[in-house]
Write a structure and sequence with these properties.
Layout (H helix, E strand, L loop, with lengths): L7 H25 L7 H23 L13 H24 L4 H22 L3 H15 L2 H4 L3 H12 L10 H8 L3 H15 L3 H9 L5 H28 L9 H13 L7
Helix pairs in contact: 1-2, 1-11, 1-12, 2-3, 2-11, 3-8, 3-9, 3-11, 4-5, 11-12
Length: 274
C-alpha cells in the first residue's frame, strides 16, 4: 500500500480511509461508555481498545493536512512513529489478554502473569513493602497455577528462571507465536516495528533521510503516511475484535467503512511491509 502513494491525491485517499475507520472507532468507544465489565477479559479488552483509539486520535492530529499541498514539517514523522509504536504495543497486549481464543484456565494465567509483570515494574518506581509482599504472593500463585504446571518443560523452566530473577515477562509466548495466534504475519509485524524504530531512535541514517527529503515528492508522502498506514489496520483489527467480544454493545460499521477495515486488516495477514 505504501508504494502506491505517489501524489497528494493518493495521500489524501489514505487519510480519508483512516478518518472513516477512526470515526467508527469513536462510535464504538461511545457505545462502551458506562459499561460494567463482567470478566477481566472484557474489562481489560475495553480499556486497551480505548487506549489504542486514543493513540490513533493523537496520531491523526499530527498528520499533515490532506487538503493542503504544503505538508507540515517532515520532522513530525519521528513523533508520529513513536505514537504508532504505542498503537502496536496496545494491539499486541489486547490480543494476548482479550483477543486470542484460549481456555478460561489459560486466560486466567495470562492475566496473572501480565499483572505480575506490571507490579514488578511498579516496584522499581515505588519501593514499598506492601507492593513487595503483593508481588511475592502473585508469584507463588502463578507457580502453582494449573496452566503453569502443565506447560512444556522447557517453557516452564525459562519462565521459572525469569520469575526467580524477579523479572517476569509480560507474555509467556514469543512475538512470532503471538502473531500466529493473532492471525498476523510475523514478518509484517517485524518489518513495521523496524520501520517505526528507525525514526523513533536518533540514528544517522534516519536523520539524513528526514533532512534530505523534499516535500511533495512520492518518498516524502510515503514517509508521512507510514505511521498512519501501520496504525490503520491495527485499529481495524481491534474494532472487529470488540464486535466479537461484546456483540451486544458494539455498533456495526457503515458498509463502506466495513470494506475499508477488511481491506486493511488483510495487510497484516499477507506480505511483509506496509
Amino acid at each position: 500500500m505504501l508504494q502506491e502513494i505517489n501524489t497528494w491525491a493518493d495521500y489524501r485517499s489514505r487519510v480519508r480511509e483512516f478518518d472513516a475507520v477512526l470515526e467508527h472507532g469513536k462510535a464504538v468507544a461511545s457505545a462502551l461508555a458506562g459499561m460494567t465489565a463482567t470478566t477481566p477479559r472484557i474489562g481489560y479488552g475495553a480499556q486497551i481498545f480505548i487506549k489504542l483509539l486514543s493513540h490513533c486520535i493523537a496520531l491523526r492530529s499530527m498528520a499533515a493536512d490532506p487538503n493542503k499541498r504544503s505538508p507540515r514539517e517532515l520532522l513530525d514523522i519521528p513523533s508520529m512513529c513513536a505514537i504508532t509504536r504505542c498503537v502496536v504495543e496496545a494491539h499486541d497486549a489486547f490480543e494476548y489478554i482479550a483477543g486470542h481464543e484460549v481456555t478460561d484456565v489459560e486466560r486466567a494465567f495470562r492475566v496473572q502473569l501480565w499483572e505480575l509483570q506490571d507490579k514488578t515494574r511498579l516496584l522499581k518506581l515505588l519501593d514499598r513493602d506492601d507492593l513487595r509482599a503483593d508481588i511475592a504472593r502473585r508469584r507463588r500463585d502463578l507457580e502453582v497455577h494449573e496452566f503453569f504446571t502443565a506447560m512444556p518443560t522447557r517453557l516452564q523452566a525459562l519462565l521459572s528462571e525469569r520469575l526467580a530473577k524477579g523479572d517476569p515477562p509480560a507474555f509467556h509466548l514469543n512475538q512470532r507465536k503471538r502473531c500466529e495466534a493473532s492471525g498476523v504475519n510475523a514478518d509484517w509485524h517485524s518489518t513495521v516495528a523496524l520501520q517505526l524504530a528507525q525514526h523513533v531512535h536518533t540514528l544517522p541514517s534516519a536523520m539524513h533521510q528526514l533532512f534530505e527529503l523534499k516535500p511533495d515528492t512520492p518518498e516524502a508522502l510515503r514517509q508521512m503516511a507510514l505511521p498512519l498506514l501501520v496504525a490503520l489496520p491495527l485499529l481495524a483489527r481491534l474494532i472487529q475484535a470488540m464486535e466479537v467480544l461484546i456483540p451486544s454493545k458494539v455498533p456495526k460499521p457503515p458498509s463502506r467503512t466495513a470494506r475499508t477495515m477488511a481491506l486493511w486488516r488483510a495487510e497484516t495477514e499477507g506480505n511483509p511491509g506496509v
